[in-house]
Amino acid sequence: MNLDNRLDALEARVRLLEDQLAIYQVMAAYGPAADAGETDQAVALWTDDGVYDLHTRAMVGHAEIARELEGEWHQGLIGRGSAHIVSMPKLEIAGDSAVATCHSRLYRREGDGDYRVISCSANRWEFVRGPQGWRVTRRVSRQLDGSAESHAVLAGGAASSEP
User: Fold this and answer.
1) 126, 99 in Cβ contact below 8 A?
2) Residue 130: what are its φ and ψ, rounded to 5°?
3) Is-contact 91 63, C-beta < 8 A?
4) Of 3, 6, 46, 119, which cross-links 136 as Cys (Cβ 3.0–4.6 Å)?
5) What is the model's pLDDT at position 1?
6) Which residue numbers in the chain have pLDDT < 50?
7) Which pLDDT belongs to residue 161?
8) How does DSSP classify residue 112?
9) Which residues of 21-33 are buried (b: 16+ CB within 10 A; e: fewer)?
């Protein structure tokens, strides 16, 4: 292998590592933004027409995702103390698109000050690289309830509530 080929291979490896790190940062940014009530920061992780398919309903676009985060249930949750936690994902990158598969947990602070897990989910995140870097085009989240649907999300499929 000549020097040019080695440099090309090294550049490709570095770019892949940079892409992985950038995607990890996008995924890791959601929980702190959601828990701090920073709706604008949270929705900015999605493309303008991005989809958040959450258990039984799908939100399309920044306005619908923001409505969910600013809604009574979520505001009550973060008002008590919450932690949206995403596990380290299995990540597949192909050019300017990527898919991450992981678990997520949602903790809620209880009256005694202890935290309780109130949700454990299978997640599939789909990304696209655009002018602003990597953004979420679709996130599918299904409760880990033993269903074929939640297993399919973890196995690499994407159950969908539409659209």
Assistant:
1) yes
2) -130, -165
3) no
4) 46
5) 80
6) 160-163
7) 47
8) T
9) eebbebbebbbeb
CA distance 141 to 155: 13
Most distant pair of Cα atoms in the chain: their distance: 65
- Distance between CA atoms of 139 and 118, rounded to whole angstroms? 19
**Residue (of 41, 38, 40, 65) closest to 53 by Cα position:** 65
The 8-class DSSP code of residue 21 comes to H
For residue 7, give the amino acid letter. L
Whether 65 contacts 44, CB under 8 Å: no
Claim: this prediction has a pTM higher than 0.85: yes
Provide the terminal-to-terminal Cα distance of the chain, rounded to the nearest Å: 48
CB burial string 104-129: b at 16+ within 10 A, e below: bbbbbbeeeeeeeeeeebbbbbbbeb
Give residue 157's pLDDT: 59
pLDDT at 158: 56
Question: How large is the angle between the packed helices 72-80 and 61-70, nearest 10 degrees?
Answer: 50
**Domains, the chain:** 3-155 (3.10.450.50)
